[in-house]
């Protein structure tokens, strides 16, 4: 059975580790804050003290960390300890520059670019969508891992360094972040005009303008439940990655507004709440 080292056991990484363990894979885990990794020992994971310890002799390294610096630092420590012929599957959202840094850090280890679509609940249910790019010869080795954590894998190319999967991930994230802010702004406008926000959701329900995401985030706002499925500060980081990738090649007016709304909401103290808390950016500070 393929042995796995999984670095990063936060909102997404912990349920991914549990699903890998449930599928029978031996998993060693590491997290910078050990307390977030420790509960996985009850599920059968070995909790390591360092990335190098987690990676020692592993066939597959999975990184699911917040950003590029933490991913590259952990990867650099882990790569020398991997088993011969091991594969590094980079699954966090770290942007184009971050993936290039990870590719350089991989050295002679084969890198698979494999960010995921989904938040906490799909991760817990093993229903993520894996966007993947990597050599054909390693796909049979990593596909069973993807099947354990996701409902579908979309292979997009053979060269991870071309970042086809990361590029698509940024496009999808831009859509999700924009939609989240559109819902929040509509709910805020409803309140300002004396309209029951629930009536807004009812009005669009079942029409071509409806979406499950609008109903989900809109209901969270109505209920005042901002338990993080995807933290606002992380969404803000992803919005910055979208802007960085776009550069001067295209105008992204909505994306610029989204970044500003996340900045205001985080400054108001909502960074650790769900990204639906961008709703609060609609009000005067």
Q: Please name the CATH topology of the largest domain.
A: Rossmann fold
Apparent shape: globular
**Radius of gyration of CA atoms, rounded to a whole number:** 19 Å
Topology as H/E string?
A: EHEHEHEHEHEEHEHEHHHHH
Which second-level CATH architecture of the largest domain applies? 3-Layer(aba) Sandwich
CATH class of the largest domain: Alpha Beta
Report the average pLDDT across residues: 97
N-C termini distance? 55 Å
Give me the secondary-structure category: alpha/beta
Helix content: 40-55%
The figure for the number of domains is: 2
Strand order of the largest sheet: 3-2-1-4-5-6
| Tally of DSSP β-strands | 9
Strand fraction equals 5-15%
SS element count, helices = 12
CATH superfamily of the largest domain: NAD(P)-binding Rossmann-like Domain
Q: Regions with pLDDT < 50 over 5+ consecutive residues?
A: none
Give the biggest sheet: 6 strands, parallel
